[in-house]
Amino acid sequence: MATATTPADDDASKKVTEADVVVETAPIEEPTEEKTTAKAGKRSAKALKEAEELQAKEERKAEKAEASDAPKQPVKPTRSRLERRGKNFRKAAELVEKDKAYGLAEALELAQKTNPVKFDATVEIHVNLNVDPRHADQNIRDNLVLPAGTGKNVRVAVFDDEKIAGADISGIEAVTKLLEKGQLDFDVLVATPAAMPKLGKFARVLGPRGLMPNPKSGTVTTDLAKAVKEAKAGRVEYRVDSTGIVHVGIGKVSFKKADLLANAQALLTSIKGNKPASVKGSYVKAIHVTTSMGPSITIATSEV
User: What is the crossing angle of helices 104-113 and 257-273, to 10°?
Assistant: First the structure.
């Protein structure tokens, strides 16, 4: 049996259909993740902002590099150590044969010829020893009087009230006044064992400059006259450094060849005589002679 529909029923069904369509076509909103930040550390707001700025800066640099079509400057080759030295030094170095070990007399004569400066430079000998200075018996240290002197005008101060001939400064009071003012107007300080306690408060002043009297260097002695005479005559003290090398000045470029040779032989003999019993094998690894600002010359180790 058919039922009749009214216009009101048609309107109602039409509304329901339109609502259904709206529901079906409405977009579904997805939940968004919010960035969480910490109060400190890499996840803090400040750190994140800095990271973003750094990334943006790197991107700008990359874009700028890609946009630049300018050719890169050629890299200059690194100059050798000899090429970086002065003209006079390079000229003097040409007289020295590479990889050649000279005899002692020949090396000293060549050192005098290769002095690149106008002043009377010091001739130095550097001896590389096969020792470990951390061991007490291998901490090589000694002093000797060079036969021909050092060529220097040595100023000697005596920390004692006894007047010593040849001393430039004498008297405990006179030396103390200089030390209190920080005036070290001397090259060698000699004292007696009894006077050493009075120098204790000046150890920080004298020690770093190598002026503190020491029995091993012959500057603490009861024979002050002998100590002053030897200091004036050219006594030198040597001590191996932390790398096992002894550095000693043996005279001036203006010295006679025979005088330089005598001084060098005396030094090498002293070093050889201080060879520790605990050192096995070769004692001297290398010997070099040079002037204050001149090129290095290798000496045959057989000379020791």
Answer: 130
